[in-house]
Amino acid sequence: MSGSECPRIAVLKGGLSAEREVSLVSGRECAAALRRAGYQVDEIDAGRDLANVLAARRPDVVFNALHGRWGEDGCVQGILEWMQIPYTHSGVLASALAMDKERTKAVYAAHGLPVAEGRLVPREEIEAGHPMSPPYVVKPYNEGSSVGVYIVRESANGPARLEPGAPPVMLVERFVPGRELTVAVMGDRALAVTDIVTAGWYDYHAKYAPGGSRHVIPAEIPAEIEAACLAHAVTAHHALGCRGLSRTDFRWDEARGLAGLVLLETNTQPGMTPTSLAPEQAAHCGIPFEDLCAWLVRDVSCGR
Questions:
Q1: Less CB within 10 Å around the terminal CB: N or C of the chain?
Q2: Is 247 a catalytic residue?
Q3: How confident is the model at residue 154 (pLDDT cuts 50, 70, 90)?
């Protein structure tokens, strides 16, 4: 950062991914919070001319509120490294690793973290017949916000019928029944466990539509499951090389106790509205939204 008392913050929002609309909301809310915290803020809808825009506006710090591919997978982080502009959240390697669900699972397993059985499968094989016995989940290995996820139930008459725009290779995982839990990590601190309650699968609609889900914080779960979630989230954060704020998602099959807990993924750019999961957990721990955003600005770095 420059030595100024009030650094100029460029909030990146929007972007080019399937999560553009969510990012626009996150960016708007973060920009408003940073202004309330006393920062000079410039909101930028990140397009393919981002490097030129940043060169013209010359911010001291970039607050990355992008979600999904390009903004969350190491690409924008690489631009910021090359331009030597400090930025929030994780760096190039952690962002790229966490966005690739198959490689994330390999890192988890290498650190002793529990994962669901799964493998990458060509689209033709997925549509030709069941790649594993149902129930199982088919999903892109490099998207977020449950974009393009299919659940093949035990009662299914045949394999998944994918949309025309589905990727040529997808991740097929054993379906884990039970509850959806999540833990945000802020620096070295796991904040809380949230139980995400929905009428069905926690898909894109359930995540973002009004009334699509209910968040129970702290989750009403046994102490050993809470402790495991908190510890696993911190381990995942560090194993992937995350910085700043991350959020790790779990599925828990209550009938199997601790053996029924698995990690699904780690989000290096969690939703950033005051009612999003990570800011909700921060508020639960006594950290207001403005303070969380300001902490992310203070935590920025470049070249890590």
A1: C
A2: yes
A3: confident
